Amino acid sequence: MYNSSKVWIGGAVKHLNRPNVSLIGNQEALPIHIGLHGGYRYIIEARGNSKSTLKKYVAASFNYRHELKYDQFDIGFYYFHMPVNFGFWYRGIPFKKYSPAYINNESFALLIGFEIPKRNLRVGYSYDLTISTLGLNNTTGAHEISLVYEYAQKFKRKSKKVLVTCPKF
Fold it and tell me: pTM, whole model, 2 decimals?
């Protein structure tokens, strides 16, 4: 993984040794899984020592996963203005069809979050709007609530290392 305050990109490969996952003695190899992710953050306002506290930014990011013949691609955008975070994501690969009847469109996700930095607390809500052939009438979408409390100790010494940054919920 490469990470800076503005750009991040990385990848992972899982199950390279293709372990046997059969529970009844058959030969059932776990398929290789490939993942790529990355993004760019445009910082509008930052404060603190060496501008380390981000107050306002926009970011675009992506996440791609592949296993066997199946793929998933997510692309999203965030707007963060301390203490509120808004986001919009699309999941699917509209130009890829697994069969004539199945177009790879899954959902749009809308996100909103709120941060209370002095309490190390973040609250987030997301709603996935189904756009696949499954249909919104059959699923009514999906709701998710996130509650994050960070209790990690803060180090006293100054470090020049760049910490891995990620969306706040």
Answer: 0.73
Angstrom CA distances, 15 to 10, 31, 73, 99, stand at 17, 7, 20, 27
Beta bridge partners of 114: 84, 123
For residue 35, give the amino acid letter: G
Does some domain include residue 113? yes
C-beta separation of 91 from 71 below 8 A:
no
Range of the domain at 139: 37-149
**DSSP SS3 for 164:** coil
pLDDT of residue 164 exceeding 60, the answer is no
Does residue 131 have a pLDDT over 60?
yes
| 3-state class (DSSP) for residue 3 | strand
CA 110/CA 91 separation, integer angstroms: 12
Could you give the number of structural domains in the chain? 1
User: Model confidence at 169, in pLDDT bands (50, 70, 90)?
Assistant: very low
Beta-carbon contacts of residue 39 (< 8 Å; ≥ 6 apart)? 7, 8, 9, 59, 60, 61, 62
